[in-house]
Structures are given as C-alpha cells and as structure tokens.
C-alpha cells in the first residue's frame, strides 16, 4: 500500500534469503516472517459458550469450542461491536492501542487469543485456518454479536477473510484488513510474485530451533526499527517477544503453513460488506505488491489506503493514524 517494493525482488535477494534460511539471526533474516496444518475440522456451525474460566485467585473470560478448546477473549464497552484478530506469533494484546482508543469513543471492543497463542488453550489439534475461523465464529455466536466490524492484522486478516468465506456476513457489517496476508503469500504458478517455499521453511527452522531469539530479531523489521532514522523502542520489542513467548511452539509452528500456503482468493470474493484495506508500502514482512494491492482488486466495495513508509507493525508505530482511519471508517 509508493515507494512500493517489488515483492519478487525482495524474495530473491540472496543475502536476505540466506540469512532467513540459516536461522534468522539478523533483522534482515527476520523480515519475512511475521504473520497469523493439521487436519481441518468439519465445516458447520460452531457451538461455543461464554463463561469465566477461574484459575486460583484470577479469572479470565473464555468460550469453549465444540472440540473442548478454551479461547480467551477481552470484551470492553457496550457500543457497536468491533472484533479484532491478531497476527502471528502474537495475541490480543497486540491490539491494545486500538482497543483503548475505540472503547473511549463508544465502541464495544473484543479481541481473542487464537488457539495455540497467548492465554487460550494449546491443543495439538485444530491449528489450521478452518478451525481458527470456526473458533472466531464460536466467539461471535456465543456473544450473540450483530452488525460487528471485523478487523484483522496479518494472519488475522486471513482469519477474517476465511471466517466470511465459511460463515458469511449475517453478523458482520464491515471488515478491515491491515497488513494482511491474503490473497496468498507463497509463490505458486498462479501467484508468481509470492515468496519461495524455502523462506517459510526458514521460518519453521528458526521457530523450532530458538524461537525466543527469533522473536527478538523479528521484532526489529516488523516495526521498521532497522530503517535509517527509525526511533527504536525497546519496550515495543520486549512486548512483541513477550506476546510470542506466551504461545505454544507447536501451535505457532503449525500456523506458519496457514499464513503462507492458504489461498484466500475465494474468501475475498465472498466479502460483500464495506471493506477498508490498510497497508504500509515499506512492510518488510508482508510486501504490499502481492498482498493489499491484489486483495483490493478482488474484494467488492474495498477501499485501499497506503501508508507511505509504514512498517508491518503500523498499528503500534503509527497507532494514532491507524486509530483515526478506523474511527472514520467505523463511524461512517
């Protein structure tokens, strides 16, 4: 989303690819990794119920899905509902800036931790996009949300698109995709501008061997902190690492396939509500040319807004701008 980079050029840069495959020990190595398979659960209406889950002196809001997995969620406010889906390898805390802002402007804001991430259960089963979308549907139905706006970042953008592809828009009024992975990230005959499979194999290798160091390295290009003149925030890097480390290494490992190999083209075609697509043209993780620019051509009633020089972590680094655009779109 105009210093637009050629994604194929990025993917074929020898130094970047060598670094990523060798273990992502530098910022360039991590730059292609940050987004949100086992057998998919059968399609159908998910059944979940909302209930507080008690652990000692603390309590958490959770729903229990039809396969017995508890999904943690936050639910603040009483206005029109806005539901957030986070990116890989993070959790609902990635939306802090947007949730605080929108609840203060009269919206009801809801965000969940994807299964295998954050405070949700860490099952060996269901770490696939079909189940992620069904978990989101279970949450929306358990809370009986109507006219909800769905907002997804990175892998969460794929989750929003796939939710609509599987469950329709009867409970949805608007959609927002931010730095989102659709239509598809991996290079295929029908997607020649995508990233080679060895890029994602490198991500798997880095996650399996030393995810703690990988997440610390990854945070730097994720937020554009490797760019000249960038104001580096150690707190932001630490928060990224902390969120990542709360998740299940198994769930995160399996999720790599879901954000890289799933083709969301048919899901995008089924989006029939007003849709806002936000993307930075210096996104080093999900390059704009093979993501937002293509999605905007597929989604009916889509508005594409490009953030010049913005990183993948624009919801944090440019929170004020993102918040203002969300408020304007949701209020229209």
Automatic annotation (TrEMBL):
Keywords: Oxidoreductase, Peroxidase, Signal. It comes from the Bacteria. Residues 1-42 form the signal peptide. PROSITE patterns: TAT. GO terms for molecular function: chloride peroxidase activity. It holds the Pfam family Abhydrolase_1. PANTHER family: HYDROLASE, ALPHA/BETA FOLD FAMILY PROTEIN (PTHR43433), NON-HEME CHLOROPEROXIDASE (PTHR43433:SF3). This is Non-heme chloroperoxidase. It comes from Cupriavidus basilensis.
């Amino acid at each position: 989303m105009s210093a637009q980079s050629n994604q194929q050029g990025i993917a074929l840069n020898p130094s970047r690819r060598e670094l990523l495959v060798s273990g992502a020990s530098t910022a360039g190595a991590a730059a292609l990794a940050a987004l949100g398979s086992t057998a998919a659960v059968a399609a159908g209406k998910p059944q979940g119920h909302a209930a507080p889950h008690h652990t000692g002196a603390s309590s958490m809001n959770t729903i229990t899905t039809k396969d017995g997995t508890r999904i943690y969620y936050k639910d603040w406010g009483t206005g029109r509902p806005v539901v957030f889906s986070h990116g890989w390898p993070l959790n609902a805390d990635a939306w802090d800036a947007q949730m605080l802002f929108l609840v203060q402007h009269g919206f009801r804001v809801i965000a969940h931790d994807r299964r295998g991430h954050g405070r949700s259960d860490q099952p060996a089963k269901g770490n696939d996009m079909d189940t992620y979308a069904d978990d989101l549907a279970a949450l929306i139905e358990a809370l009986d949300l109507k006219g909800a706006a769905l907002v997804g970042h990175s892998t969460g953008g794929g989750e929003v698109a796939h939710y609509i592809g599987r469950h329709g828009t009867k409970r949805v009024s608007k959609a927002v995709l931010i730095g989102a992975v659709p239509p598809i990230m991996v290079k295929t005959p029908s997607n020649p501008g995508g990233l080679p499979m060895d890029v994602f194999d490198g991500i798997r290798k880095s996650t399996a061997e030393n995810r703690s160091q990988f997440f610390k390295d990854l945070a730097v290009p994720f937020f554009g902190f490797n760019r000249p003149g960038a104001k580096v925030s150690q707190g932001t890097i630490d928060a990224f690492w902390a969120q990542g480390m709360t998740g299940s290494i198994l769930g995160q490992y399996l999720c790599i396939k879901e954000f890289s190999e799933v083709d969301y083209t048919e899901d995008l075609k089924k989006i029939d509500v007003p849709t806002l697509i936000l993307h930075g043209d210096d996104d080093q993780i999900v390059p704009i040319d093979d993501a937002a620019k293509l999605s905007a051509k597929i989604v009916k009633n889509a508005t594409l807004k490009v953030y010049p020089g913005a990183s993948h972590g624009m919801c944090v680094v440019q929170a004020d701008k993102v918040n203002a655009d969300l408020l304007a779109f949701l209020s229209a």
